[in-house]
Amino acid sequence: MSSSYLILTTIIIFLLIFLYISWIFISNEIENKKETGERRDFLYTASYALGAVGLGAAVWPLVDQMNPDASVKALSTTEVDISNIDVGKSITVLWRGKPVFIRRRTQEEIIESQNTKLTELKDPQKDQDRVKKPEWLVMLGVCTHLGCVPLGGKGDYKGWFCPCHGSHYDKSGRIRKGPAPTNLPIPKYEFVDNNTIKIG
Ligand code: FES
Questions:
Q1: Residue 17's beta-bridge partner residues?
Q2: Which residues have any ligand 1 atom within 6 Å of their CB?
C-alpha cells in the first residue's frame, strides 16, 4: 500500500469520526428543540458528505495506480558515463526510446558556434543557451521536421544533416537550412559529476 493511500485512509477515518460526533451532537440539539426540519437538513448534508468520502475512497486507488511507480521513474532518467568520449567525438544514447547525441566539442567548434550571428539563424538561439558546459553538447537526435535521425558531421555546416528531406544543422544543433522549423531540442539533463550526465 502506497503512503498516499495510507494518508487518504487516515483522513477518511478522521472525517468519519468527525461526522459521527457531529451527528450525535446535532441530534441531541434537535431533540431538545424539536426542530425536525433542521434534523432533515442535517441528515441530507451528512449523507452527501459520507457519499463524497466513500466515492473518494473508491476512486483513489484507481487514480493512485496511474502514478508512475519507482521502476518507471528510474526508466525515465538515464545516467551516462562520458569519461571515455574523446574531444571531437560523439556518442548516441537512448533515452525514453529516443536517441540523444552527446558530443564533446573541440575549441574550434565552440568558438564557431558562439560567434554565429543570431541574424543568420532560422530559430535564433545563442550557443550558450544550449549547453551547460561549452565542451559538451547534449541534444535530442530527432529532426524537428518529421522526426528522422540526423547524421553527425554532415551537411553544409558540418554539424548534423537529416537525409530524409535535407535539413542542415550547425555545430550547435541549430537549424540552418532545409524544411526543419526549429533547432534540435535540448533534453533536461544535469552533470552528476565531471564524468557523468543524468538525462531526464
Ligand atoms: S525529417 Fe528531417 S528533414 Fe524531414
A1: none
A2: 143, 145-148, 162, 164-167, 178-180
| pTM (2 d.p.) | 0.66
Phi, psi of 171 (to 5 degrees): -75, 0
C-alpha cell at 52: 463524497
Q: What is the rounded CA–CA span in Å between residue 195 and residue 106?
A: 17
Expressed in angstroms and rounded, the spacing between residue 141 Cα and the centre of ligand 1 is 12
Q: Which triple of cell numbers denotes residue 111?
A: 568558438
What's the rounded Cα separation, in Å, for the pair 22 and 95?
55
Kind of pairing between the strands at 136-140 and 90-95: unpaired
| 167: enclosing H helix or E strand | strand 167-169
Burial 100-112 (b: 16+ CB within 10 A, else e): bbbbbbeeebbeb
**From CA 172, how far away is CA 103, in angstroms rounded?**
10
Residue 165 among the catalytic residues: yes
Q: For 127, list phi and psi in degrees, rounded to 5.
A: -60, -35
Q: pLDDT tens, 10-65?
A: 666 666 776 667 676 656 665 665 555 555 565 555 555 555 555 555 555 555 55
Taking the centre of ligand 1 as the mean of its atom positions, its distance from the CA of residue 81, in whole angstroms, is: 30
Are 132 and 198 in contact, with CB atoms under 8 Å apart? no
